[in-house]
C-alpha cells in the first residue's frame, strides 16, 4: 500500500493518469497543474500556498518554476515550506504566524530543540 499523504510521506515524483501528472494536494485530493493558482497570483490563501508547496514537494513543479510563475522570493517560499512542515496548513494563516513563532521561541529557550526544529 503506497503512503502518499501530505506533508508527511509525499511523493518523490508526480503520478500519472490519463496522460496527466498529479500529486496529492494538501487536502488529500489529486492536484494537477491546472488546479494550481494562476500565474501571477497576488492574493494568497493558506490553501493556495499549501497547494504550491505540495506541487513542489511532489515534483509537479520545480522551485524555479514556482519563482518564475508566481514571482516569489526564495525566503517567502521557504517560509511556506517551513510553516507547512511544522504546523500544516494552519501554519500558513497570517493571523497564526506570530503565535507559532512564539511557540518556537519558547521551545528553543526551554531546551526543547527537537520540538523547535
From TrEMBL:
Gene Ontology MF annotations: sequence-specific DNA binding
Pfam families in UniProt: DUF1153
Organism: Sphingobium nicotianae
Protein name: DUF1153 domain-containing protein
InterPro entries found in the cross-reference section: DUF1153, Trp_repressor/repl_initiator, WH-like_DNA-bd_sf
Amino acid at each position: 500500500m503506497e503512503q502518499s499523504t501530505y506533508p508527511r510521506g509525499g511523493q518523490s515524483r508526480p503520478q500519472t493518469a490519463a496522460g496527466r501528472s498529479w500529486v496529492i494536494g494538501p487536502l488529500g485530493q489529486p492536484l494537477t497543474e491546472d488546479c494550481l493558482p494562476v500565474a501571477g497570483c497576488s492574493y494568497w490563501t493558506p490553501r493556495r500556498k499549501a497547494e504550491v508547496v505540495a506541487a513542489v514537494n511532489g515534483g509537479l513543479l520545480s522551485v524555479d518554476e514556482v519563482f518564475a510563475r508566481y514571482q516569489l522570493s526564495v525566503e517567502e517560499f521557504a517560509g511556506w515550506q517551513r510553516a507547512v512542515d511544522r504546523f500544516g496548513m494552519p501554519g500558513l494563516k497570517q493571523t497564526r504566524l506570530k503565535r507559532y513563532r512564539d511557540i518556537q521561541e519558547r521551545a528553543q529557550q526551554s531546551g526543547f530543540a527537537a520540538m523547535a526544529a
